[in-house]
Structures are given as structure tokens and as C-alpha cells.
Amino acid sequence: AMAAPVQGHRARYKSPGGPPWRETYRRRCMERLRSSRAKLLDRYRQAGDGASGAAPGALLVQEVMEQEWQELRDRLPGLGGEQPMEQVLEDPDELAVLEEIQQELIFQEQLVIEEYERSLRFDEECLNAMLDGLDASDRVICPVCRKNNLTVKAHLVCCQCGLYISTQDMTEGKLRSLLESTLTEHSQRCLHSPEFTVTSGMEEEASLLMSCPV
Fold first, then answer.
1. 52, burial (CB in 10 Å: exposed 0-12, middle 13-18, buried 19+)
2. Which of 46, 66, 69, 190 falls 20 to 30 Å from 159 in CA-CA distance?
3. In angstroms, rounded to a whole number, what is the distance separating the alpha carbons of residues 66 and 69?
4. Which residue pairs, CB below 8 angstroms and at least 24 apart, start in 49-52?
């Protein structure tokens, strides 16, 4: 008596385009993963940037798939009421679709992590270049443009990029020491390279400001 309904259930999912919920579910999973970029990177940092053995693709994909399954299940008929997706999707074709979507999400997640790692490496290279410049006894690299040597005089510090700051009794040694100690203190607490800008208020003289995007 149950043979006909079961056959009809399986036939419904053997269409050339796969099960009818496939594209809706895939699209919504992708959108949720993209909108969860900040959450993904937070988890990656908490895992020690991969050092503590977090499996690739295991950070957010499963959570995204489960959340979107609950959303889809509430809107489309025939997806199993309150049952989790692994209990509803018993047909091999359905499971294959789920596996395909999972692998695509894992790939997208890894792209985000790789982009973040490239950004970290670039920040580290910039920081090292700045510290190398500070180590040189005859010059101080501009922390704003990171290209030109600063001109340091007793009453001012300036650069070709436009940096111009009034100072008192400044020397290259003093400036190098200030920059180096500030950079070192920051690097002990944060992996990101800080950024330097020149800032001034309405009545204040220009100052050098160090900030960190993290």
C-alpha cells in the first residue's frame, strides 16, 4: 500500500534540475554565508588562525545550512515539518544535492579565509618594512605613506606626501624611538598593522595619529 506514495515521492526529486527546493536553498545559504563574513572571521581568529586544528570548512557552513533549512522547511510543503534535514532527506539524490551545496559553501568559506590571510600577510610586510626603516640609523620612513624618508628638524617633521607636524627639540633618534615603542606595544596585542594619519582640530596643531582597524 505504501509502494506508490514512496515511488511518487522519489520521482518528484528525480527531475533533471534536481529537487524543487534546491536552487532556493542554495541561493539562501550563499546569501547567509556572505552576510556572516564578520562572524566567520571572528571564529577563525578565535581558532588561532587555524593553529588549533579547526577543520577547513567546519567553522560556519553547518550552522548556515541548518538555519536555512529551518527557514525553507517553514515555507515549502513536503519538507518534513519539524524534522532535521538529515532525517527528511533519505533519498540518495536528495543527499547528493545536499552534499553538493555543502561543498560549494565550504569552497566559498575558504575563499574568504584565504583573502583574510593575504590581507594579514600584506599588513605584516608593511609593518616589517616600517620597522626595518626605523632600524636604519640614518633615516626614518614616513609612517603615513610608508615610502619616503622623513625630514626631521628640531621644530618640525615633514614628508613629501604632505605630512607636516610642528615639534620641539625633535631629533631622528627621538622620533624613531617613539614610533618603534608604539608599534611594538601594539604588535604585542594585535596581529594587524596599525595605520598612521595626520589629524588636527579647529584650534589644534597637526598631530600624528595611530589607529587600528581591528
1. exposed
2. 190
3. 5
4. 49/117, 49/120, 49/191, 50/113
Band of residue 6 on the pLDDT scale cut at 50, 70, 90: very low
Identify residue 60 by its one-letter amino acid code: L
Query: Nearest to residue 143, comparing CAs of 179, 90, 191?
Result: 179
Q: What is the 3 state secondary structure string of the chain?
A: CCHHHHHHHHHHCCCCCCCCCHHHHHHHHHHHHHHCHHHHHHHHHHCCCCCCCCCCCCCCHHHHHHHHHHHHHHHCCCCCCCCCHHHHCCCHHHHHHHHHHHHHHHHHHHHHHHHHHHHHHHHHHHHHHHHHHHHCCCCCECCCCCCCECEECCCEEECCCCCEEECCCCCHHHHHHHHHHHHHHHHCCCCCCCEEEEECCCCCCCEEEEECCC
Residue 203 has pLDDT above 80, yes or no: no
d(CA 147, CA 153): 19
Backbone angles phi, psi at 187, to 5 degrees: -65, -20
Mean predicted confidence (pLDDT) in 43-63:
68
Strands 164-166 and 156-158: antiparallel
Query: Max Cα separation, the chain?
Result: 97
